[in-house]
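Researcher: Please translate sequence to structure tokens.
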Amino acid sequence: MARPRKPQSDSRSERLNLRLLPDERAAIEARAAALGLPPSVYARNRALGGKHVTVARRVADPSMVLAINRIGVNLNQMVRAINGGAGYAPPALNETLERINSLLDRLQE
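Model: Translation complete:
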């Protein structure tokens, strides 16, 4: 399903082309990326006096991401085996899942 059309009053139909030095363009793109915005939105807001709030982003620890991925792979294999009738649920499965969920909740704080 396609995105609904914007009202004509909200449509940005006008263009303004700028010539920039490579380092100027890189600076705009870097600042926009830091805010999670496309460069054109960032430049438009800055040109029109808009203010941006810089949000400190937490960077995920690569070793933590790898560990969580491995846990997910193991859980997926266990659930597939259980659902396929090849086994039964280990007695500690619910407790393990609760511990994993609480750890994931703490990571998202």
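Researcher: Any highlights?
Model: The chain has a mean pLDDT of 82.
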